[in-house]
Design a protein that fits this description.
This protein is an alpha/beta fold. Helices cover 40% and strands 16% of the residues. Strands 2-1-3-4-5-11 form a six-stranded parallel beta sheet, with helices on one face. Helix 7 packs parallel to helix 8. The chain starts with 15 loop residues before the first helix and ends in a 10-residue tail after the last strand.
Length: 348
């Protein structure tokens, strides 16, 4: 026989029907006593109470909807990344502090064949969500309109695309991060610095490229279009783009990569060419995910505070749920360079 549940779990107590039979009353009458109703005769109440105690009936707490914690939905791009793990840690702590419950969904905001454009949004109203956090999501005009129509407060955490005016979002200081990464490489003596970024439509990547260009201009180094390449957000695209950079007549001596995961693809391409990091080429990433510390050599990267971004977004959402509107629709948290072992002066 297969037994489910914990082997040490206690056996279920008597039902209310058993208590009612023991006390010689109806189930509705026993229920009134359990729930503290006043419309029960004293003698009947005494018999039911004695039966409850004698049989060991466990009174379950009454559900109070007014006192129940509010529910917030968190929609992340996926659950199989350390990025999402950092975001969820930040949301979890902030939700606990605010007395909120959270429901996590993965990938709902991505388009899939045969799925109604707004079908997954209906789940928010069915659950009675008081608000929604979107991480790395890119919503359509119809989806934004649906949220506005149903008056569901929402905040975007590092949105994947441009957001309409008035939409509240939280992100990192991407432009300054691009400046910091590039200035670090320039200070080491590199003048041929390339950048590998994500999709062109990603506003964060665009700001990082703008910071890269600004640092080059401030150093008096001309911008070389062939040194600016876009890829997907994963390792494979960055690996292909790195091979393109290495095939140039004058390949770069350093690469600023706009995410740590893409930087791993750059590492792979360099290894395939027999090149060593940082002896032959220096690499700087962006994010400071755990993968950056595990890389060989450990990756110098720009840290963006993912957990803090998520917690800030949750606190903004709480204000919006209470009817308050943030003074600014865009909140940016500062970034900083974390130096490890993937950067060094250029050879020769």
């Amino acid at each position: 026989m297969v037994r489910t549940g914990s082997p040490s779990a206690p056996a279920a107590g008597p039902t209310l029907a058993v208590v009612a039979r023991e006390a010689g009353v109806s189930v509705p009458t026993a229920s009134k006593v359990v729930n503290g109703r006043e419309d029960v005769a004293p003698e009947t109440r005494r018999r039911v109470t004695e039966a409850l105690d004698r049989l060991g009936y466990v009174r379950r707490p009454r559900f109070d909807a007014a006192r129940a914690p509010k529910l917030v939905d968190v929609v992340v791009h996926s659950l199989d990344s350390s990025w999402s793990g950092a975001v969820l840690r930040g949301v979890e702590q902030a939700a606990y502090d605010a007395g909120l419950e959270i429901v996590v969904s993965a990938g709902l905001a991505r388009a899939r064949p045969g799925r109604p454009e707004r079908g997954w949004l209906d789940k928010f109203t069915v659950r009675g969500s008081a608000g929604v956090l979107f991480n790395l999501a890119e919503l359509t005009e119809a989806q934004y309109a649906w949220l506005e129509q149903h008056r569901i407060p929402f905040v975007m955490i590092d949105p994947a695309g441009d957001v309409p005016p008035g939409v509240v979002s939280v992100g990192a200081a991407n432009w300054q991060g691009g400046v910091t990464a590039t200035e670090h490489l320039l200070a080491l003596g590199h003048q041929r610095v390339a950048v590998v970024a994500g999709p062109r439509r990603a506003p964060g990547g665009g700001a990082r490229i703008a910071g890269y260009r600004s640092a080059l201009t401030s150093a008096g180094i001309g911008h070389r279009p062939e040194y600016v390449l876009h890829a997907g957000s994963e390792e494979a695209g960055a690996r292909r783009r790195t091979h393109e950079l290495l095939d140039l007549p004058e390949p770069p001596t350093a690469v600023f990569v706009c995410s740590d995961r893409m930087a791993l693809g750059v590492y792979e391409a360099l290894a395939e060419r027999g090149l060593r990091v940082p002896v032959d080429i220096s690499v700087v990433g962006f994010d400071d995910l755990p993968e950056a510390r595990w890389a060989a050599p450990p990756l110098t990267t720009v840290r963006q505070p993912l957990a803090e971004m998520a917690a800030t977004a949750l606190r903004l959402l709480v204000r919006m749920m209470d009817g308050d509107r943030p003074e600014s629709t865009r909140t940016e948290l500062s970034t900083r360079l974390v130096e490890r072992e993937s950067t060094a002066p250029p050879r020769g």
